Amino acid sequence: MVIIIKREADAAQVENLKALLRSKNIDPVVTKGERQTIIGCVGDLSHLDTGVIEALDVVESVQRIQEPYKAANRKFHPEDTVVDCSGVKIGGGHFGVIAGPCSVESEEQLVGIAQAVKAAGATMLRGGAFKPRTSPYAFQGLGAEGLRLLSLAKKETGLPIVTELMDFKDIELFNDVDVIQIGARNMQNFNLLKEVGSYTKKPILLKRGMSATLKELLMSAEYVMASGNPNVMLCERGIRTFETALRNTLDLGVVPLLHRMSHLPVVVDPSHATGYAYMVDPVAVAAAAIGADGLIIEVHNDPPHAKCDGAQSQTPDMFAKTMERINKIRSAL
After folding, report:
1. 255 with 292: CB under 8 angstroms?
2. Do 165 and 182 touch, CB atoms closer than 8 A?
3. How far apart, in whole angstroms, are the C-alpha atoms of residue 175 and residue 287?
4. Model pTM?
5. What is the pLDDT of residues 271-280, one digit of tens each?
6. Which residues contact 36 (CB under 8 A, 6 or more apart)?
7. What is the per-residue burial (b if ≥16 Cβ within 10 Å, else e) of 27-53?
């Protein structure tokens, strides 16, 4: 439920309304937009008499939210959310590009790639320290050593770090991480979502599950937000369908659709969506053109010898050309 406040209402009236809601065990979330102020109500509303609320002098109207996701809903928060990733803003007109290798392999590899992507215009550095792999025999990442190398690359370049958390027991190792990624396989790991949401206010990059609907993606975001962390970014990385020519099926139409459904920023991952480096450039440009708030792109200095996902990784030169095209598209828009 959202309560729309009258324009002429003063601060004392709004505070009194918030106190009334809290007395009924409802958490009021105030959003001040350019044209109106609304109060989103989080909690059990079954015992709340909306007629009493609507009759208050301070209230313009009361609207019920029918969708099961409340905090992530555009109706709850009409203005775009801007997520601050250690100084890099995403959403509400702010565009960010996260780039780096699929997995951290060595200091030389990571620092070299970090310097190259920053020079090309990337605003954040990605790199996997803990890697979820289909095969138990595949490279699983360097773990804590990988996080140390990411921190080193951050000191060298100033780029905020984006990396995946697979198990909450590792959360204390993530003190120097700026954005915590929840991967596609963990999108519906509800215990992990609740633990992360209650433990930290760091931005969360939530990837869409391989077979997840948009409603399920938003409900997963709701778990994080309802636990106390409002700083969530949605990541579209394609879903698994009957088509086998591509690694995944990416429907860019979900970008404007998610923007209509939710106020959260939408990031597109063209690397996992396609599975081929030559396709990353056109898909990244298309995502920027259709209104994505950011991109996450895999870049490797030696893709044929990458320990994972080499086929979908751009070289630094390819990434630089993609960034040139993205900047032209964004300037034209």
Report:
1. yes
2. yes
3. 31
4. 0.90
5. 999 999 999 9
6. 4, 5, 7, 60, 78
7. ebbebeeeeebbbbbbbeeeebeeeeb
How many Å separate Cα 193 from the centre of its chain?
Answer: 13
Quick one: tokens of 198?
């209650």
- pLDDT value, residue 252: 95
In the numeric block, which tokens belong to residue 321? Answer: 């050309």
CA distance 127 to 105: 9
Q: Are 273 and 208 in contact (CB under 8 A)?
A: no
List, for residues 81-134, the tens digit of each pLDDT value. 999 999 999 999 999 999 999 999 999 999 999 999 999 999 999 999 998 777
Question: What's the CA gap between 184 and 206, in Å, rounded?
Answer: 8
Taking the C-alpha atoms of residue 1 and residue 286, their distance in angstroms, rounded to an integer, is 36
The dihedral over CA atoms of 197, 237, 280, 179, expressed in degrees to the nearest 10, equals: 0
Least Cα distance to 166 among 190, 185, 139 occurs for 185
Residue 154's pLDDT is 97
